[in-house]
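Hi L.,

As promised, Cytochrome b5 heme-binding domain-containing protein:
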Amino acid sequence: MDQLELGNLGQVPRFRDLLSTLPKSPGRSCYAAVYEVMNNLGRAIKLTQHRRLINDLNSTLGFETLEAITSISLTNTEVCAAFGVYFTALEQAFHWPRDTASSTPEMLENHKLVIQILNQPQLREKLCYLLEIESRVGKVAKFPKTVAQTALTMARSILQEAQLARQSGRPLPGNIQDTVNLLYRTCRSDWFDQGDYNDFDSHKQFGRLHEVIRASGTQRRLQELFEEASAISCLRCMPNLLQGLPSTTEMLQAALAAIQFAVAVVRDELFAVAIDEVIWGRTFANFSKAVGFCNVSAGGADAPIFCFIDTLCGRADANSKVALLEELEFRSRFFPPNVRALVDHLASSPSLRTYLASHDATYELQQSFRGLEQQRYDLYRMHRKKATRITIALRAGQRGTSAGVCARGGTTGVAKHLAGTLRDAMKARFGDDLSALQIDAIAQSHSPLLVGNAQVHAARVIFRFSTPLAIGPGDCLEVTVQLPDGARRTRTYSVTYTYSSQNLPEGNGYQITSAAEVNIRCKGLVSRYLCSQSQGCQVQVAVKPAPHFRLSKNTKPKEQTIFVAQGGSVGLFVAWIERQKQLTGRYVLVVGARRYSELGYKAELRKLAYRCVPSLQIVVALSQPGTDDLSILRSWGAQPYHGWVTGYLSLCSYQNIRTVHICGSSSFGLDTAKSPAFYTDKTTYRERKYGPRLQPITTSTIPTIRLLVAPEPQDTAITPNFPLVSRSDLALHNSPTDLWIAVGSYVYDVTAILRFHPGGEKVLLARAGRQAEDMFKSVHGDSEDVNALLRRTIVGQLAPPDQKNMAWEKWLDRVVEIQNDLTNHSRFEKVPSPSGDNLSECPPSEVVHASVDCFISGWHLLLYEMNIGESEPSQLQLTGTEVRAALDACQATAYEQSFADIARCGFVLHRIFDAHMLLASKIHSFLDKLKSEIATCIINNLDLGFGVFYACTNKCIAAMNELAEDMGSI
């Protein structure tokens, strides 16, 4: 095998193709048996019968098979790697679900331990030392039986020493702890080795769930993106560049620019990770990392990219060096050896941050470092946003995260702990003064738009940066200016155009550019000042990325991509189209303006209209066109429309839409996003059968509609003349078709936002009908664009608590919380069809049944807190146990009688999901009635007893009894 360079990854084992390449031998027979089990593992997991399948395999394993796999693994490293992944996946799957404790079958564990010894170079070296023979493969391979026995003894000795240390409460010496970590490394390094993410069917070998089929966010993909952008090679050179300063300053600046570009690309890849938090929380985290392919944690601080950049850039706090090394040691312990070696290589080099603090560092190098720091900061900021979704997973039954955050003490405490941990991590890296991340720039206005008495209505402002910055379509610039009165003010503007730069990286929707343009309306102190700077002025800027808005190419001839722009924002679409060498499929660009004279980027649009026919259709909607405006547009190939953009779209009905990108003001964006042109709103079979709360949901991709709202100043006032909304009224609006939330003292109707919310529907549904200020502030903070959009959905002011009915308002809020969980836990993108043809894309039955478990747990706790009595809560739990027993019996029968029949398994799972979703639908109707009764009594100040809770509980018990009977009839 060729020696890999530091940081590079080896090839993925050819799991499926290995059988055809191996000669007949006992080792090949063992591989074939394990391969067959792996191909059936997913179906067994769906029926929660995987332990029986694994136990059946374990019964066929013994010392003969141990010798056989040792023999073939010593001569074929690819087989050894494949065995390592397979055995670890089986071991981790056996431990799921963790509600019932279980030990790994002995022979399976023995085989996994021996393979791990052979698979890790450091462990194999220790083994060879014990064998007192040379480590050349040929000599070791002559004694497979001895090798297997010695390797197993060695592994057991390591585990025993670790267990004794744990029992005595003493830490292991560093070198021994490293050996223990190596023995378990397969559990984490499988992130890099489990299947080929370019192969859509590779997930079927590991029993993977539907949200982990896609490639986005996999550790391997991130590493390869870093390699493709030349960032890995730049990092390898970094020690030499740092040691050679100051003579290597220019080369170091170029390397930092390349790394900055790579970080931006990887961050967008991480953002595209789309999962169902409930499925992930209930199954994937419990399976362990070895059974999945992409996960929330892969977007977290345990991805190698975080370690690479942290090692290079260091920390801003006082104890940076010591704290950094300790943290890196912990976070990189499970990386593949070659990846961890690059981290160690960087850690041993001189400190870049220390050099920048000296008088020897040039201004250009300091600015270049700040450019990289901006991207690193947003990488962590994005992770902080995504990490809040873990609270939904914890509510679904996940026990903890890879970083050790556990669900003890309730999810509210976890959310606060998580937010605090991430806030501290960012403070340690970037300090308190984020303005220190800004770079210098020159702002110069041009092409002013004059109205009335030659007054400047708007202007295009070019920002020329002191160092190249990575900018993608939709990104914003945070601009700080010093006004003539000496005051420093900051405003945020959407980038409307970027200028290509020679010899700088470009691709993946990004480019490293030395200049960008913003279309600014002459409104407000900062904007008026910038529009007046025709000679240029000094400013400071920082990029605010918008990964949710990234533009991507059509991949099929029948696909359509729709671009909708208001005014000067059309520039960002124009710049992207200009850089495309070829357009596949069809693109529609719809831009709105008042009249032709106010249309931005006319010359560029005219060129595109000629160059891109017939792939690009340009539509210009003018609300107040001049006499010749429409004919001028026709003359250069655009389609004119007299009216508003929404009026034009009302006449359209687009098919085969890949994405819709909307850019403009908050009111323009929200009105456009609601256009029926982008939807085929037909009532689905699932919605008709189970009700609107269980309508289909998309969780495998980020939304098709992507909205970029122009930032508005925070001081934009909210008109105070809104009606009061009582808390009981708020509680009645918590369904996917009628969703209100409270943020602070205002109530908002965010139903329309569900369709394009970048964080997915379940995040919003988790706080439907309730106060959401803590989660909103944690994710969005004081984001000008998000707050601008939210202001357009306001329905009223939140009334203060009802002093006479505070207890009942509290109980009502708890009912809403439990119902929101039931909604989130019962909605899935894919459910098994009667024929079983989509079985590999669906979650296991354990997930849908978990919705019943979580409801019972939450409702039982509520009844206990209300001190209602023992009878109903006890009967509720007993009924839940009976439902579980009926489900287990149903699935065991299906496994015993028809496991080999995929269609029959699919039919059984279809019936199981159908029965559980019908139950969820019934419970929703009971809860809706209960909420209405409580709200009516609170509003009318009527007496309300616990009888309504008794009645609701008994109805739920009766419905669950029906489910148990239904399970018996499948």
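The radius of gyration is 30 Å.

Thanks again for sending the construct details.

K.
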